[in-house]
Amino acid sequence: MQQVICTVDLVLLTLQDGVLKVxxxxxxxxPFEGVAALPGGFIHPAExxxxxxxxxxxxxxxxxxxxxxxxxxxxxSGPARDPRGWSVSIVYYALVxxxxxxxxxxxxxxxxxVDERLDLPFDHRQxxxxxxxxxxxxxxxxxxxxxxxxxxFTLPQLQRVYEALMGEPLNKVSFRRKITEMDMLEPVEGMxxxxxxHRPAQLYRLKPALxxxxxxxxxxx
Length: 221
Known about the structure:
By secondary structure, the chain is of the alpha+beta class. Helix content is about 25%, strand content about 30%. The protein is elongated, with a radius of gyration of 19 Å. The protein starts with a strand and ends in a 15-residue tail after the last strand.
């Protein structure tokens, strides 16, 4: 009787100069040895408490990154997705600020725009598309984009993150009203942006209680 292959795969997303990018890791063994793919690996029953634990372990082993935000995306399964046989993959997506990802990029780990024509093995292109669709949809009504903005940010910087993900400019007044409605930010006392041509702007951060869960609004941006 054939044994089902059980893995986790990670879609690590970051924003570089307004371009949404995904992290791809060079595969170390067959099938598709040497080909760039999503970071992934087998579940270790003796080591992993659950699939989330497995995802964090794999991401740490492949990229040395501990993501500030991780969410389960979906399960992908079937006999045709892996040449080794019938397989199931529990997929998570992670949001990581670019300055964190930049330090982890190596010869085996690269970033690629999600809008490029990516020739990926298995069903990884389909997985990337699903993660991007989830992120862009949730950006309309949640605090999710904050996890791409860094530890601290100004309101104009945060607005640019939302605009990059949603693909359209946002009205400044409406944006700030929605941010206030979500009640998700706190000012960083005594900290302001520097080096800009205009007056320094107040720096904000996510409230500590909201760093591992999302704030939602009924009507989107």
